[in-house]
Design brief:
alpha/beta, Rossmann fold, 7-stranded parallel sheet, 7 helices, 7 strands, about 15% strand, globular, binds nicotinamide-adenine-dinucleotide, NAD
Length: about 260
Amino acid sequence: MERYADRRVLVTGAASGIGRAVVLRLLAEGGRAVAVDVAKEGLEETARLAAEIGSRERLVTAVIDISDETAVNEGVAAAVAGLGGLDVLVNAAGMLRGARTHECELELWNRVIGINLTGTFLMTRAALPALLESGRGVVVNFSSTAAQFGHPYMAAYSASKGGILSFTHSIAQEYSRQGLRAVNILPGGISSGITDNIASLVPEDVDWNLFLKLNAAIGQGFGEPEHIAGVVAMVASDDGAFITGTEIRVDGGAHH
Ligand SMILES: NC(=O)c1ccc[n+]([C@@H]2O[C@H](COP(=O)([O-])OP(=O)(O)OC[C@H]3O[C@@H](n4cnc5c(N)ncnc54)[C@H](O)[C@@H]3O)[C@@H](O)[C@H]2O)c1
């Protein structure tokens, strides 16, 4: 499938997990991509994997902290200039740090919101003029099942993902007449940098029974980043032309 043969895409969180899988999938479908992350070595590995599928010449990597306004504005401008415009923005960068909520330091709260929610806003704001110029621009944002199903010890993370959910609905409506689409993806448990390290990201001695209703084993178990990448590839292509202002939950049936 060459659904991205004439598409210019920008993907954050591209050094690991879901973001990396999205980059590789959109390259495999013919796209040209700028892959963004704070993790330089992870980006180098993404570039190596792109070379393995013969797509290295259509990929540029850029180290950008999405919570840094200046870095985002300069980085997105450079990406748009290099690509000659922009058709698709995938905001997959995110982080999880848990805490018992009554012990959650303001610094931790601000960091989680600052990267996940404000970072998604900063990237989207910087990319919007080029996406509107495209006339068929698509923003794919990463919310989470944490936005809709109580995730204990993750109040900041869940709030950031709930914010992304609402933010995406707002822009979908605001720019609908200009041809922009905006869609939330809500992954359930997907093997990645976050889930593989979950025990170290929540406080010690948490009550794991509180996670029972979120147990991925109720559905098909943990998914792989490629399960999400395939959905993103559909949504942001012309196959998703009538999908906007909504969310797609991809959780292997863990939350039905
Ligand atoms: N894995 C899951 O089960 C799951 C479930 C729901 C939602 N999500 C969301 O999916 C997205 C992708 O996460 P993942 O699961 O692949 O995790 P991951 O840890 O493998 O990848 C996240 C990437 O984001 C990057 N990142 C973090 N802070 C950044 C910053 N300030 N600037 C730029 N890049 C930054 C990290 O370096 C990392 O490469 C995240 O938004 C996450 O919240 C994941």
